[in-house]
Design brief:
The protein has eight helices and nine strands. It has about 180 residues and is an alpha+beta fold. Strands 5-9-6 form a three-stranded antiparallel beta sheet. Strands 1-2 form a two-stranded parallel ribbon. It has a two-stranded antiparallel sheet with strand order 3-4. Its EC number is 1.4.3.10.
Length: about 180
């Protein structure tokens, strides 16, 4: 069977790989001059790769984590609570660990009684309905939006399930050779 995959981002390449395993004859069509979608590594700026798009492997529980080892790529672990800077309402920058996760809605998010999503409500509609904007959006939900983009097309229910995902607490890994 012949199959055409549109887009050579992470999802398109994963789909092509699965289809090849299922004995399909696969063609991947990409509009840009490169593969990777949101993954974009720049090596012209510094002695180390600079990520201009997707940057992290979020925990060792995601499908991309074993791929790094499979291809002999080195990773560096860091805990976002210690390394991630947030801008406070007074304009100062602090790490999440310095401020305390509770103040940012990170750890205690599981204890908050979050309103349920309404049917197939988008994340953008959910945020608007619950008057969550800017710094009122908990850090972990901001991370979700950053990872998946376009809250208008994201499921509010999926975002709420992400908030309860224990694997997201593990920390992140950066591929030292560059994510591309």
């Amino acid at each position: 069977m012949k199959t055409l995959v549109i887009g050579a981002g992470a999802a398109g390449l994963a789909a092509a790989q699965d289809l090849k395993k299922a004995k399909h004859q696969v063609t991947v069509l990409e509009a840009q001059h490169r593969v990777g979608g949101r993954i974009r590594t720049d090596r012209s700026f510094a002695a180390v790769p600079i990520e201009l798009g997707a940057e992290f492997i979020h925990s060792s529980q995601v499908p991309t984590y074993p791929l790094a080892a499979q291809f002999g790529l080195r990773t560096h672990y860091f805990n976002q609570q210690d390394d991630t800077l947030v801008r406070l309402p007074d304009g100062s920058l602090r790490t999440i660990a310095e401020v305390g996760c509770e103040a940012l809605g990170y750890n205690n998010i599981r204890m908050v009684d979050w309103p349920q999503a309404q049917g197939e409500e988008s994340l953008a509609a959910y945020l608007q309905r619950n008057r969550l904007e800017g710094q009122k959006i908990p850090y972990k939900l901001q991370e979700y939006i950053s990872d998946f983009d376009a809250p208008e097309t994201l499921s509010a229910q999926a975002a709420l399930e992400f908030l309860c995902d224990k694997s997201a607490e593990e920390g992140d890994y950066r591929i030292l050779e560059g994510y591309d």
